[in-house]
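tool_call: predict_structure(chain=1)
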Amino acid sequence: AAGDLTKAAALTDAPERAETTLRNFTAGLDIERPSFVAKRATADGDDGASVPFAAKLPISGLGTWQYRSALPLVRADEGAGGKGGQDGGGAAGWRVRWELGLVHPKLTDEVKFRLVREEGTPDVLDRDGGKLSGTDHPSVAQALGVGGGKPRGAVQLIDRDTDEVRGTEARFGGPTSARGP
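tool_result:
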């Protein structure tokens, strides 16, 4: 949340890969000051745990993309390549087990996210052929789907190889604005 991707990546069991992924995930998404709220950790056997969290990612000028995910944790010690705890003093500690899905549940080796900003507002005509706008007619802006003159856009899930759109994760600026799953 503080934007220190190097520090965040260092808390994982694959710091270099984690930092690269975090930088690539945020590139082009225009995320401003994300916030994350962790829930109570649950044990997963003797050497693992999971920490569910809620993410709120404000997209510059559009709205907030919200979703839930979980951080898988594993015990780390000197022999497993960890630093032996947060202070590096040799005591067993915890590390985030790095995997793409912890950043967002739908992020995989095959798909990534792209921000698309829509230019202008679609023309909506009255019965006489005159243009209606959400700005001029705010009481009907949402019903018309013109977003009341607000900027519009979407976070799309796209194929990494073909750039084919696989789905829309969040939509901003219209009456059906989705904030995410």
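agent: The two ends are 20 Å apart (CA to CA). Proceeding to next step.
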